[in-house]
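Notes from the 1:1 (GR / supervisor)

We went over the backlog. Supervisor wanted to see one worked example end to end before approving the batch request, so GR pasted a single chain during the call. The sequence is below; no edits were made to it. Supervisor asked that the structure be written out right there so they could see what the output format looks like.
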Amino acid sequence: MIKTFFENKSIYVPGDDYAPLAPGQIQHGARGVIEFRKYDRNHNLIDSWFEPNIVKIFAKEMLAHRLPSAEIWDPIANGGSGGWVDDGRDPDEEFAARYILFGASFDENGLPLDNDDPRFYIADPVTTTPIPINLGPGAEYEGGLINAILIAEPSRSLKKVESVSYQATFQPAGTPLIQADVRAINNIVQLQTTLRLDEYNGMGVTESDFFTITEVALAGGRKIDSVATCDCSPRELFLEGVGDGNVPLACIAAGTDVISISQSETLIDQIKEGDQIKIVGAGDSESENSISQVSPYYLVISKVVGGRDIQLDRTPVDSNNNAITGSIGVYRDTLRIFSHRILSSPFKKSNSFEIEVRWSIVMS
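Structure output shown during the call:
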């Protein structure tokens, strides 16, 4: 039986039996687990289980952007006595882990497929039981989810991290530069949200519509409050345009790997080197794309500050492999998935219970 999470300062790590590490044992890398706790209508705990944490390559970018202080030391500030000043960067808040996203196995009619969905599960060659497909650390599925649940607040809200806490592991004695005893290290961060009774119960209201939640992701992105009833994927919410954000940046494609921001645009430094962008037809909304493409997402390889030319990782082409030319629209993609997990124990959400999702990451 699985004990209380991190009981006796042990760390639960990925594995078939989720066996804890011995107290004082340090695991390298950003690891941890996702804990699900199911409560009935009277808030009695009726079940709990754990899933391994699968960290994506995006985690390195997110951690690198959050590491520096927002201020740097200026030796000549305050009349030469020195002082802390703004370092001139953007706040980089979009790199903070702020959201927990959910996907489910359902068909085009919104009916659940459970673990018979080949997008998530395959049959074990020996036991023939469904097992999750393997996820790699890269930007699979264009950096998004396999089959995200469409957002429609309040019943299918964009779930934000609702609490953050820290826990300690213990550093063993005898290592260099450590006192000759055991000391605590606050290197475990826990982020939590709750799927409440009236949330994520399906596209409809009948029992047959209840979602079988099969995937969960911890993500960063620009700050979003309410998104109303857009019936849109989480990915679309994090596409950043100009004006009120719903209009793409006007650009010109010349049939090469370099596109140019139109002379009519003033926000020429909204797109930066290292960004991922989505190319759509001129004037298309986030959910529209009048240009048929195999993948509309591109990586910005080079972009000079103050310049209008954007070099991409490849030449934009349509689904027939013809180079795209003429007027296009560009959205900056701010969604960055820190971790993505296909659940080995998918669960069906209904209005009879709520589920707490506790995402714990060991930074060691």
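Supervisor's comment: Residues 58-66 form the longest helix (9 residues).
Batch request approved.
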